[in-house]
Write a structure and sequence with these properties.
26% of the residues lie in helices and 29% in strands. The chain is an alpha+beta fold. It folds into two domains: 59 residues, Beta Barrel (OB fold (Dihydrolipoamide Acetyltransferase, E2P)), CATH 2.40.50.140; 42 residues, no CATH class. A five-stranded mixed barrel has the order 1-2-3-5-4. A hairpin with a 2-residue loop joins strand 2 and strand 3. Helix 2 packs parallel to helix 4. This is DNA helicase Holliday junction RuvA type domain-containing protein.
């Protein structure tokens, strides 16, 4: 796992940024809140989670380690993958998601964006 990256912001997109770390450009997917704190040319540290799939290796970046930890915890829920977990963090605080995963909310779908909830089951889907 890559725990964090420190480097220069080489580019910012709507859903990701390129972080130049010693001449290697890492594409890092992040929430709009995290991306909003980045400035082109600034040196930053992002806490990261590396998701390895059969056909890809994707880096997700977070402003702090708590967000990263919740991102990984939320994925333990059946049907929640990394993209949905990132979307959930864009809408809800880490505390709210932690409570939802622990079962302390009244509705299962309250932890996911409205567009991600299945109309039939009310649960999150990717």
């Amino acid at each position: 796992m890559i725990a964090h990256l420190t480097g220069t912001v080489a580019g910012i997109r709507l859903d990701s940024a390129v972080l130049d770390v010693n001449g290697v450009g890492y594409l890092v997917h992040a929430t709009p809140g995290t991306l909003g704190t980045l400035r082109h040319g600034a040196t930053v540290t992002l806490f990261t989670s590396l998701v390895v799939r059969e056909d890809s290796m994707t880096v997700f970046g977070f402003a702090d380690d708590d967000e990263r930890a919740v991102f990984e915890t939320v994925q333990s829920v059946s049907g929640v993958g990394p993209r949905l977990a990132l979307a959930m963090l864009a809408v809800h605080s880490p505390e709210a998601l932690r409570a939802a995963v622990a079962g302390r909310t009244s509705r299962r779908s309250s932890a996911c964006p409205a567009s991600a909830a299945s109309p039939r089951s009310g649960s999150c889907s990717s």
